[in-house]
Amino acid sequence: MPIQLTFEAGVQDAQEYGSNDVWMVSRVFFWILREGAAPGDFWADLRRLAGNKFERFRIPLPAQYTGPMAYADVRQPVGADIEMDPVEVGAPVGSPLPLNQAEFEKQIVAYYRGLANESATMVRVEEGRVLEGGSRPSKHIRLSHNVWVKRRRVTL
Amino acid sequence: MRSRLRLSPQTLRVLEAFLDDPKEWKYGYDISKTTGLKSGTLYPILMRLAERELLEASWETAEVGKPPRHMYRFTRNGLREALEVVRSRLKSRSQRTAFGGVKL
């Protein structure tokens, strides 16, 4: 039976998800429509997984959100081309239904590549905190607004 | 001690773009145009170059109604390392040519 999956948002290249000198790790949030299930609380679910990262976005509520929100991590080597180079996909976390991993990977990679190149405003930098692992305080920059919001519904 | 930064082809393109005029501040947008790299690829590279103090970043004074933009340029160390990388690659390329394309 086909599964209707909705990608909602993501966070690109975040240290808290595992980005380091070797890997760029991003997290993509999604949910699956469960026919007959009670409506879920979209914002409560998103906050539970992502904290307040998306608070400043006015995400329109989906017409029929059943939740729960789930996520999967995608990663590429540092310096890789998001559009062209291979993307590794982690196992989905929190999915209420088993997914066809091959098909899921295909869809999430398409979503991720599209977003990462869609807009120059997706990734912003600002003067940041002292970097973890650094040898001394600095005026380094750090990605801090590296979040995106875009809804895309797919059928697996 | 931190590991050496992975020099992907994209990272090298960024370094070469800065080498065009090494003392000038450059916007991410300009680097994107020069290298052909989209923001999702470019900014993680700029971020890591800055983390390693190969680039320094500064806020452009914003005009009213416009968001401030970051500018980047080589640090002294960054320029030296970038030149070393380029020289090393040129040397490697000439050796390959001299020996009939056999990688040494």
Q: How are the strands ordered across the major sheet of chain B? A: 1-3-2
CATH class of chain B: Mainly Alpha
Classify the beta-strand content of chain A into a percent band: 25-35%
CATH homologous superfamily classification of chain B: Winged helix-like DNA-binding domain superfamily/Winged helix DNA-binding domain
The 3D shape of chain B can be described as elongated
CATH architecture of chain B: Orthogonal Bundle
User: What is the β-strand count of chain B?
Assistant: 3
Verbal overview:
The complex is a heterodimer of chains A (156) and B (104). With 156 residues, chain A is an alpha+beta fold. Chain A is globular and about 45 Å long. Chain A has one domain. Chain A has two helices and seven strands, in the order ββαββαβββ. Chain B has one domain (9-92): Winged helix-like DNA-binding domain superfamily/Winged helix DNA-binding domain (Arc Repressor Mutant, subunit A). The A-B interface holds A 12-13, 21-22, 24, 77-83, 115-117, 119-127, 131, 133-134, 138, 140-143, 146 and B 2-3, 5-11, 28-29, 32, 37-41, 43-48, 50-51, 53, 57, 59, 70.
How do the strands and helices of this protein lay out in sequence?
The complex is a heterodimer of chains A (156) and B (104).
Chain A: E1 4-11, E2 23-32, H1 42-50, E3 69-77, E4 88-89, H2 101-116, E5 125-127, E6 141-143, E7 147-155
Antiparallel strand pairs in A: 1-2, 1-7, 2-3, 3-4, 5-6
Chain B: H1 9-19, E1 26-27, H2 28-35, H3 39-51, E2 55-59, E3 70-74, H4 76-98
Antiparallel strand pairs in B: 1-3, 2-3
What's a concise summary of this model?
The complex is a heterodimer of chains A (156) and B (104). Chain A has two helices and seven strands, in the order ββαββαβββ. With 156 residues, chain A is α+β, with helices and mostly antiparallel strands.
